[in-house]
Amino acid sequence: MTFKPFLFLIVFLFLSPFVNGQIIEDTISQTPYSTETILPQKRTKAENDSILKAKLSTGSTTKTEKASQTNNSKNNHSPTKATLYSIIPGLGQIYNKQAWKVPIIYAAEATVVYFAITNYKGAQKFKKEFTLRANGIELGRNPDYANFPDQSIYNLYYAYQKNFELSIMAGALVYVFNIVDAMVYAHLFNYDISPNLSLNLTPYCLPSITSSPTFGLSMKFNLK
Residue 138, class by beta-carbon neighbours within 10 Å (0-12 exposed, 13-18 middle, 19+ buried)? Predict the structure, then answer.
């Protein structure tokens, strides 16, 4: 009677590993997702290092390309081109990226031209009047200057004529300044001006026993 239970126990223990393995294997085969899809793919350290190096090299290449483009744009800035462009007033300043100077140049030129035209007309008017009087011709004289002596008419003509010549010289100076400004700034275009420079103006007062105190301004230039 005791032998049969013992025999069944031995058979059960012998077959249980095979039965459990078959159940686990059937269960895994019936799942819709494999272990490869459930678990994330792990990279090795060498793969992570290579990916990181690729990203760093891409970023450094982009920065290098931007820096080279900036340097090339600075190196391509030609003072000769700026000088030639400034033959047309203001065009050199536009090339130097200083378009704000163009209205100033044209305003100065317009002012000079206005005074030149005004003085030229005045000089021609008094020249004609003086010429008619010198030749004794009554026809064509301006009645507004009937009470003016001949010397006054000549002095007015001379004054207008000198102002006209000065206006021409001023116009030439503005034109030359336009060319020189474009050329000089084109030479300085590639130089970086440090932001660590500072200029301070400070008021001061020096007391005096014998006289009134002295007031003034002190100028301080700092290199930080």
Answer: exposed
